[in-house]
Specification:
Blueprint (H helix, E strand, L loop, with lengths): L1 H17 L21 E3 L6 E4 L17 H13 L12 E2 L15 E6 L10 E14 L3 E14 L4 E3 L8 E3 H13 L24 H11 L24 E9 L4 E5 L2 E5 L1
């Protein structure tokens, strides 16, 4: 009997670690059924995203394709996916100074940006290669169901703990900068991690990538052309990770972890880990 009790206790502890819940501040409930969700959507595109000038040192003239640097090329990949005369992100990127703040709130300055952090943040895991932080308000319509109407976002790379490269095939000990940005831009545009389909939004670093998968194309086209959330397991259905009243302010971060685990935080609370 004691042995059964101990096993039960261990299982309960493991379960409680994975189901990080706190109803004191937010009633966000992860939806594990579909394996796919939509963080949200921008009501107006194209987005004017600025790139830190600190990235300029990472590129050479030979890296340019069609007048676009390696990071701008990743934005073009998402633009090309929607096609039909719709542009999601303006390229080339305008430049902006890199930010040195130690608080994520300081990045909410009216500019959408891509930055390097050399000091990282106390409230973000040091195991994160990069994060996308976003702000918005809960909204609802018959096609998307409940979703986040996005109004600000930033992508921030962890240059304190990791090194990055744009060299094809990479360099030892470095992560491919363009691959990670291609993934993070999916979050920036409103996509969650994708666990059940072949996708650039897989919840782990997958090595050198320069294109989207078929599912990514269907997902982003559904979101911005058809105003639908194309779920992975059950066809077209309103599937979101959150259930909050319309008008509720939301801020969140999505961490791409070096150890293969990725985490979603909403209003400071861990709501999804996989």
């Amino acid at each position: 009997m004691k042995k059964i009790f101990n096993i039960t206790l261990i299982l309960l502890l493991i379960y409680s670690c994975k189901q990080a819940e706190d109803s004191s501040n937010i009633s966000a409930v992860p939806n594990y059924q579909a394996g796919s969700c939509a963080i949200g959507k921008w009501s107006s595109t194209p987005l004017n995203i600025k790139m830190s000038t600190d990235f300029n040192a990472d590129f050479s003239p030979a890296d340019s394709v069609g007048g676009l640097n390696p990071l701008e090329q990743m934005a073009k990949v998402w633009n090309d996916a929607v096609g039909s005369g719709t542009k999601l992100i303006n390229v080339p990127f305008p430049s902006t100074d890199n930010k040195t703040g130690t608080s994520l709130g300081g990045f909410r300055d009216g500019e959408l940006g891509i930055y390097k952090s050399y000091g990282w943040f106390d409230n973000v895991s040091s195991g994160a290669l990069a994060i996308t932080q976003f702000y918005g308000t809960m909204a609802s319509n018959s096609s998307l169901g409940t979703y986040i109407n996005l109004n600000h976002a930033d992508i921030i790379f962890n240059y304190r703990d990791y090194s990055f490269t744009t060299i094809a095939g990479g360099t030892w000990g470095s992560y491919d900068l363009s691959t990670i940005l291609l993934h993070e831009m999916g979050h920036f545009l409103g996509l969650c991690h994708e666990s059940t389909n072949n996708s650039i939004m897989a919840p782990y670093y997958s090595g050198y990538q320069r294109s989207l998968k078929d599912f990514d194309t269907r997902k982003i086209r559904g979101l911005y052309l058809s105003n639908q959330n194309i779920s992975s397991a059950i066809g077209n259905r309103n599937v979101n990770a959150l259930s909050l009243p319309p008008g509720t302010p939301v801020k969140g971060t999505v961490e791409l972890m070096a150890n293969g685990k990725c985490r979603h935080f909403i209003n400071g609370k861990l709501v999804f880990e996989h």
